[in-house]
Every structure is written in C-alpha cells, then in structure tokens.
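Pilot study result, target chain (203 residues):
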Amino acid sequence: MFFEPANGHGLPHDPFRAIVAPRPIGWVSTLSDTGLVNLAPYSFFNAVAGRPPMVALSSEGIKDSITNMRDTGEFVVNLATMALAKQMNETSRDFDSDVDEFGPAGLTPEPSKLVKPPRIAGVAAALECKVTQMVDLPDLQGDKGQRLMAVGEVVGIHIDDAMLTDGKFDMVKAGTIARCGYWDYQVTRELFDMPKPDVPGAH
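Predicted structure:
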C-alpha cells in the first residue's frame, strides 16, 4: 500500500510510529522554575551527536516537561529498563502540574551532580543534560502545531557499575526497553556484532 499521511491511511491504527521503531524512551525528570518536580516518558527521543554527546526530544503539545526544559535549561534522561517498565508507564499518566510523579510511581529521587533536576535512584544509567536549543517544528504549511523540540548537551553520565561487562555498557544486562508503536514495547535480550566493513581487523 501507499498513502499520503495528510490524506489518511485507512488502517485501524496509524503505522508511522511502528515503522520508525524501536525508539529509545526519553524518561525525563525536570524541575519547574518554581521548583516542582516532573517525571515523564517521551517516545520521540534519541541521541543526535557524540562529540559532545547530545540528545533531542520533542513534545506534541506544550507539556510540563518541555515547559520546564525551556524555562530552566536543564533535564535528566533516566534509562527505561524492564525492571522499571511499570513505573515508567505510571509516570505517563496525565497528572496535574503540581504532582510529583516520583511518588505515585513508587520511585525515589536522587540528587544529580551538575544539574538541579533529580535522577531516579537505582536506574541503570542516567544522563544529566543542559539545553542548547529549543526548536519549533512547523509543518510544510508553517503551522507549528505546538510541536517543540529540546536539544541538550549531556554534561554528566551516571552508570550502575553492575551494568558494565568487559568495559562496555551491557544493554542486555540492563534490560533496556524501547517504544515500538501502538502500545508495543521491546526489551533488549540479544545483540549481534557487525563491525563496519572498512574497520581494520574486523574480519
């Protein structure tokens, strides 16, 4: 089949998010400019640079997390794993702005080193980030549609030492999960090694 998104797809559910998948989950903790804590997962999230490490996430609708990033310039990305999948999903509820999602989800905040928003205690890894740019996402007609992207530089990285195997972060041991469209998720249980063809000694 072929369809133009602007004209609809005729399927029971939109396939776009399932095609562009799996996607890492941006489980983001922020503070408002008045000090209120917010914790929420974002499915439009990814790394966008390595030197320095940078991440980007976008929000459809100007929600609490993206507002806090815009107002304070700081956020923390907590790694979503199978061990904390239910808690991650709990933080996706549409809570009022004054609700600290750590409580309802049964999570414990832990102070960050270089930014003010807390990270989640016990996560396999966490990225402390500072916003470098806030970007509107207009469509072809110029309509921004309350789509806003935050780009952040990772200024500090926390790793649970138990998740390191032979000097590498072990995604299988961590049980990293990803968003796969619809209400589907994926857990990392197996990896395969495939070096670039032009890497010396790779064959």
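One observation from the pilot: The radius of gyration is 18 Å. A full batch analysis is planned for the follow-on phase.
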